[in-house]
Specification:
single chain, mainly alpha, two-stranded antiparallel ribbon, 65 helices, 67% helix, globular, small GTPase binding, mRNA transport, Exp1_repeat_2
Length: 1406
């Protein structure tokens, strides 16, 4: 028997509804459908699917359930019956419904009469119970009022039946309270919920009876599962005023057999919000639960290791523990915090969550991470700003100062959580090189993966934790970084995680603390990079350094020399051929260019010209070794620099220099093609042409409107090449057909054409002169592009043409109306001929066409009424086709376009056009709209359907449409509202093109339809009520399958509201927003003010010579002076404490007095910047507009034919000049009222006088420091290593030695630093004053420095034979550590005093 014969015989057996059903044959077909080895496997599956979907197959279910010996056959039979119950139950006669209900009750009872029956029916019992619940939803309570009493009464007679009835009750609870949305009407859902609550007493008594008296394990498990589904909605009296909690806690939770289900029930109870009621009940419940948990998860147990070695049941227990604790703490942690006697148990539970957070299980970690995010956020929100000594301390000051009892309580816990966040930090978003649909390798951000979501949450949590105590965050990160410095502890994976964590807290510290911390991190990583061997390791370290640097743009903007050095190092990396290094360099370069763009085009101190001039001069050298995609990224980065605020002449000059290389290639290509058109068939030339076009595109993307100076040079040649390439493509298509589009040569030509259009589109989207687009660009596009689009082969039509036209209409808006009449015949009709045949052909072209139609209907709709009637009908037909499209974006675009178009047409001033349009198209559109609305394929567009339908009803019932929508001769006394109601009733009972309502939904009586139509016509003004009525109608006709979500709009709106609320909260927290999400201009303006007020910025060379990080108890405290090692003569710790006491007191007093003044000033400056920025932007816009008006006026005055326009333009120019004068006056007043920087000199003078009083003590400390230098080598020989943070990371066990001095003619001469490293990789850098050089000639110091080469100021000694990643501590980085003496003296700020001890008598002590 072949397949066709098999299908024919099978259909004869299954679908012969006149004869008795052959159950045995059905079992045989089902057996073959479940055994893939049989030859009729697929044919049998087809037969079974047809049987289940047949509308009459449910009539065979009684025979299948009664006589079939195959459980799977019964499963399929129940599927058919359940489908009928959901869609056609109300169609059946009442007697037949009662018979089906009775049969199902008897069969359910038979399958659960004893344990053997339960086992026998296990494969289909769940489907059987679901089918019975489907009947209950229709029958209860109207036709089955005693259902609850019957099922509870039956449960008391038989344990097996009780077990199955528990499952039925659980399913009913879920159907009513969890899954009722979109399945039943709102009124029916409300009725079922109310009935369930009223009759719950008998159900609860049954559950309690089972839990108290039953001893059957499966029954108890079923009861606990059912009870869990009840706990979220039952009245709380059943929980807290009965023995339920006591039974769960004392009887079942200690039992390993039931602990998981019991803990789920307790989690539901613990997550309830009861206000101030039952607090002691929650306290006692938590105490009892945690005591039992800690007996299993003891404090000594390594949960992470035990979890990996345990079975599924034990792993579920750990997961349930995490869910219970996290949900309980969210609701009731403050109840425990308010009771001191519960603090120990509270912390024990939270530390248990911390231990569970160490488990390497993603889903489990996400549960814990969500809780830590909530806890850190709640602690931060309590007191975002701390106060100390009357000063407002931004970014926190260590919660020990905050006076918050909650923060004090969680001190140790939060430190543990910080460690978890740092060690478990996920990988952030990254740029990937992927191949797109066109075969090109492009760069794109990673998608919204689970790992990125974890990173976002962990980053946010760590930022909050840093605000709570940034010094502790520093300590933890510094310790872990120090561990990586040592060879034995180095791990690329751990280093990556640590650096991701360091980069994640950018902006969370104050600027001074961030500077100090970042200097230490970079210095340690530089040393590690020099010390490690192997390019793999060096590449990992270098990429992490660049990642961290890119995450701290505020630091880069504040230190120009370091920014310059980093960029130079990136240029070096661009020549390194090791895998991934060039990509890392380009990514970091564009990130820095975006955030620090202004600094590259501004003349910096110590520079002869802006850095952009040097960069452009050496650009070809930098990109010499890069691939094409990397060069394009480089060009975009430089484009962002040129786009900085500059005068037009300077910007044009820079653009000309910038595009010199691409323009030279362009000239060569144009000359070659002009002389020989066949050159366009040469792959090398096409590849070069594509590269040049993409370079222009990326540069235009970054530069914006002013790129017009470059685009104008190549525009006409660009269009000519476009036309030539298009002719070649069409020639190939006519000769060989569509297959040639798959050839590499033709595909390259298609890319050239597409890139040409994208370049124009990129500029148009960023232009500031839309009229120039219409007047100067569109005419050439009409002649060479749009006409070519109409004439070329259909398969060669480029969707990018429609995208370009869409962008033009969006930018030029109403000014495009005259041109639309010329464009319409060129692109509309030919495109519609392609997309109206099938809904699946040309998807890109289809989406682009409907987007274009949307923009035209929005901005140029008056022009549509000037086109011929047949073309206008094509437009309306296209809107109906868009509504019917199965692609949601196309359907939504069509519906939105229709809505806007209807509203705009209603506002036209010409009543003939308005009424004529509605008379011709209103009923047609209404019919098509309802056709889509009742089609389950369009369920996702329900929101737009309801919106458009309410608009159409409003147009009729509010009287906007006056013209009769009917034939007045046929209906002489009819009006539009009455006619529309009758029309809708008739159409709902007759037919739509896709759906026979009369056949499909005969249970919809005329009265029901009439009520629906009347409801919709009365509620069109209330969007929410209108959608509710429409939903109920769709549920009644069962137009949607179960999986469709009719509440998608509410869900999306709620998600958007939550995201908006979270974004507003994050904006108020420093560091929460990533560097790329912050307001660049605000940061830059703050930096500009900072540089004006403090001209002598600390250079990064001085930062690198600063002492290593020694975090104190508060991140706002200055780091202490390097601890001196013990000396045999006396205790240096005591001496140092006595010596620096007065200085510290003076510094603290200065800080306490200066801080409030400076914070008030900063706050005032932020307010000032926020107020003045809009006026500055308006000023720039008016200047540009006036310049354009003046140019246009000059042109019109020279043209005698345009005399009529001169007056209008002159008046417009005069009005703009007046507006500019007013804005200038406002800006001038605001500048005059700019906050003044407070004068703090008297405060610092007082602090200096107190510091001077400590001079004798400081002199003894100086002597001690020098003697200690002599004892360093002795300590090392005795096996006493220096502190790890005091040792150069690349040097094994050799401490850094510093001499602090004070010259007589300088406020503070710079220190010098030596950094030794063993082996042949020694690299020594110095920065010494002339007086220091003289002192080094003294015998004692010369002896100590005999092994070192002393360099005069301005000279550097470093290895010269290094390159690429291995040269991190040489060349430019060595120069970064070396600074001229004069520069140091002039640029060292007074705030760096603590880094240089004022030792006036150092030479005498030496």
């Amino acid at each position: 028997m072949n397949i066709d014969q098999y299908l024919e015989s099978g259909r004869a057996v299954l679908f012969n509804f006149d004869d008795k059903f052959d159950v045995a044959s059905f079992d045989r077909i089902v057996d073959q459908a479940t055994q893939s080895v049989t030859p009729y496997f697929q044919a049998a599956q087809q037969l079974v699917t047809e049987f289940v979907e047949n509308p009459d197959s449910w009539t065979r279910v009684d025979a299948i359930l009664s006589f079939s010996v195959n459980p799977i056959s019964k499963f399929y039979g129940l599927n058919a019956l359940r489908s009928m119950i959901k869609t056609r139950w109300k169609v059946l006669p009442r007697e037949q419904c009662e018979n089906i209900k009775k049969f199902m009750i008897d069969f359910v009872t038979k399958c659960s009469i004893d344990d053997a029956a339960l086992i026998e029916s296990r494969l289909y019992r769940t489907k059987l119970d679901e089918t019975l619940v489907a009947i209950v939803k229709h029958e209860w309570p109207a036709h089955w009022p005693n259902f609850i009493e019957e099922i509870v009464g039956a449960s008391r007679t038989n344990l097996a039946m009780c077990e199955n009835n528990m499952i039925i009750l659980k399913l009913l609870s879920e159907e009513v309270f969890d899954y009722s949305s979109g399945q039943i009407t709102l009124a029916k859902a409300k009725q079922l919920k109310q009935q369930m609550c009223e009759q719950f007493t008998t159900i609860f008594e049954l559950c309690q009876l089972v839990l108290v008296e039953a001893n059957k394990a499966s029954l108890i498990e079923a009861t606990l599962g059912t009870l869990q589904s009840f706990l979220s909605w039952i009245p709380i009296g059943y929980i807290f005023e009965t023995e339920l909690i006591s039974i769960l806690l004392n009887t079942y939770f200690p039992n390993p057999l039931y602990r998981n289900l019991t803990l789920k029930c307790l989690s539901e109870i613990g997550s309830l919000d009861t206000g101030n009621q039952y607090e002691m009940t929650f306290v006692n419940m938590y105490s009892g639960v945690l005591t039992v948990i800690l007996e299993t998860l003891t404090p000594e147990l390594d949960i992470s290791e035990a979890y990996m070695n345990s079975d599924d049941d034990e792993r579920k227990f750990v997961q349930d523990v995490a869910l219970f604790l996290s949900s309980f703490f969210r609701q009731h942690s403050k109840v425990l915090e308010a009771r001191p006697e519960m603090h120990e148990l509270l912390l024990a539970g939270m530390f248990l969550v911390a231990r569970i957070s160490d488990v390497e299980e993603t889903e489990l970690f996400k549960v814990c991470l969500e809780f830590w995010n909530w806890l850190s956020h709640s602690l931060y929100v309590e007191s975002p700003f701390g106060f100390t000594g009357g000063a407002l301390m931004l970014n926190g000051g260590g919660f020990g100062r905050q006076g918050s009892p909650r923060r004090e309580l969680y001190t140790q816990l939060l430190s543990r959580v910080r460690t978890i966040m740092i060690t478990r930090m996920a990988k952030p978003e990254e740029v990937l090189i992927v191949q797109n649909d066109e075969g090109d390798y492009v760069r794109e951000l990673t998608k919204d993966t689970d790992s990125i979501n974890i990173y976002k949450s962990a980053r946010e949590t760590l930022v909050y934790l840093t605000h709570l105590d940034c010094s502790d965050t520093e300590v933890i990160m510094s310790q872990r970084l120090s561990a990586q410095v040592h060879d034995a502890g180095f791990s690329p994976e751990l280093l990556n995680t640590l650096c991701w964590a360091i980069g994640s807290i950018s902006g969370a510290m104050s600027e001074e603390d961030e500077k100090r911390f970042l200097v230490t991190v970079i210095r340690e990583l530089l040393g590690l990079c020099e010390f490690k061997r192997g390019k793999e390791n060096k590449a990992v370290i270098a990429s992490n350094i660049m990642y961290i640097v890119g995450q701290y743009p505020r630091f880069l903007r504040a230190h120009w020399k370091f920014l310059k050095t980093v960029v130079q190092k990136l240029f070096e990396f661009m020549h390194e051929l090791h895998e991934g290094v060039q990509d890392m360099a380009c990514d970091t370069f564009i990130k820095i260019a975006q955030k620090c763009r202004k600094h590259f085009v501004t003349l910096q101190a110590g520079e002869e010209t802006p850095y952009i001039d040097k960069l452009l001069a050496e650009m070809n050298l930098h990109i010499n070794d890069l691939q094409e995609g990397q060069v394009q990224t480089f060009f975009e980065a430089v484009g962002y620099m040129i786009a900085s605020p500059l005068d037009p002449q300077t910007r044009d000059r820079l653009i000309e220099r910038f595009m010199l290389m691409p323009n030279n290639h362009w000239i060569e290509i144009v000359a070659r093609v002009s002389s020989d058109i066949s050159a366009l068939s040469e792959p090398p030339l096409i590849s070069q042409l594509l590269h040049v076009l993409r370079l222009n595109n990326r540069a235009c993307l970054a530069i914006g409107h002013t790129f017009v100076s470059q685009l104008g040079k190549i525009y006409l040649d660009l269009l000519n090449i476009y036309k030539a390439v298009s002719d070649i493509i069409n020639s190939h298509l006519r000769q060989s057909g569509d297959v040639v589009l798959t050839y590499a040569s033709v595909n390259s030509l298609v890319k050239v054409r597409r890139e040409s259009l994208r370049l124009i589109e990129t500029w148009v989207a960023r232009t500031e002169d839309p009229l120039a687009v219409r007047d100067s660009f569109v005419p050439h596009l009409l002649e060479l592009v749009f006409l070519d689009y109409q004439q070329c082969e259909p398969s060669a039509r480029e969707p990018e043409v429609l995208r370009l036209l869409t962008t033009i209409v969006k930018q030029v808006q109403g000014e495009m109306c005259p041109v639309i009449l010329d464009i319409f015949p060129l692109v509309f009709e030919c495109t519609l001929d392609m997309i109206n045949k099938e809904l699946t052909l040309y998807p890109e072209l289809r989406v682009a066409f409907f987007n274009l139609l949307q923009q035209i209907c929005e901005h140029c709709y008056p022009a549509l009424f000037q086109i011929p009637e047949d073309q206008f009908r094509v437009v309306m037909d296209s809107l109906t086709w868009a509504m019917q499209h199965t692609m949601r974006d196309v359907a939504d675009t069509g519906l939105l376009t229709l809505k806007d178009f209807l509203e705009r047409v209603a506002t036209l001033n010409d009543p003939n056009i308005v009424q004529g349009f509605f008379r011709s198209y209103y009923l047609l559109l209404l019919q098509h709209l309802f056709a889509c609305l009742t089609n389950s394929l369009h369920a996702a567009s329900f929101k737009m359907h309801a919106t458009v339908l309410s608009v159409m009803f409003r147009l009729v019932f509010s009287g906007v449409i006056q013209a009769p929508l009917f034939n007045p001769a046929e209906y002489p006394e009819m009006d539009n509202p009455t006619f529309v109601k009758q029309f809708m009733q008739v159409k709902l009972q007759e037919a739509f093109p896709h759906l026979k309502l009369q056949e499909a939904f005969p249970h919809l009586a005329p009265l029901q339809i009439e009520v629906t139509v009347l409801s919709l016509s009365a509620l069109y003004g209330d969007a929410s009520a209108f959608k509710s009525a429409l939903r109920d109608f769709l549920v009644q006709i069962k137009a949607f399958a179960n999986e469709e979500d009719l509440f998608l709009e509410e869900t999306e709106a709620m998600q958007q509201l939550e995201q908006l609320k979270k974004k507003e909260e994050q904006t108020a927290v420093l560091g929460i927003l990533k560097p790329g999400e912050r307001d660049d201009m605000l940061d830059m303006n703050q930096f500009e003010d900072h540089t004006l007020e403090i001209p002598s910025l600390l250079t990064f060379e001085e930062l690198l010579r600063a002492p290593p990080l020694t975090p104190s108890s508060s991140c706002t405290e200055p780091a202490t002076v390097r601890t001196v090692k013990p000396n045999k003569a006396y205790s240096p710790q005591d001496a140092a404490q006595r010596a620096t006491q007065h200085e510290r007191e003076a510094r603290e007093q200065e800080k306490a007095q200066v801080a409030p003044l400076m914070e008030e000033y900063k706050r005032a400056m932020r307010t000032y910047e926020d107020k003045i920025e809009p006026f500055m932007n308006q000023q720039d816009q008016l200047k540009s507009t006036i310049a354009a008006d003046q140019t246009r006026l000059a042109e019109l005055e020279a043209d005698d034919s345009a005399a009529a326009l001169v007056a209008d333009v002159r008046a417009q120019l005069h009005a703009n000049q007046q507006r500019l004068a007013k804005v200038n006056a406002t800006v001038k007043q605001m500048v005059a009222a700019k906050p003044k920087r407070p004068d703090v000199r008297h405060v610092r003078a007082l602090a200096a006088s107190k510091a001077a009083a400590a001079a004798p003590a400081l002199q003894s400390v100086a002597t001690m420091a020098v003697e200690q230098d002599d004892s360093d080598d002795e300590c090392e020989e005795d096996g006493i290593p220096p502190s790890p943070m005091q040792v150069t990371s690349a040097a094994p066990a050799r401490s850094r030695k510093r001499i602090y001095e004070r010259d007589s003619d300088d406020e503070a001469a710079p220190s010098f630093e030596t950094a030794q490293s063993g082996g042949s990789d020694e690299n020594v850098t110095y920065s010494l004053s002339s007086r220091s050089l003289e002192r080094l000639k003294e015998p004692r110091l010369a002896t100590r420095s005999s092994s070192r080469l002393i360099l005069p100021p301005g000279m550097t000694l470093s290895r010269a034979n290094t390159s690429g990643v291995s040269s991190w501590l040489t060349n430019d980085m060595a120069a970064m550590q070396l600074v001229s003496t004069d520069e140091n003296v002039s640029s060292t700020p007074k705030t760096d005093r603590r880094k240089r001890l004022a030792l006036s008598d150092l030479s005498n002590s030496n």
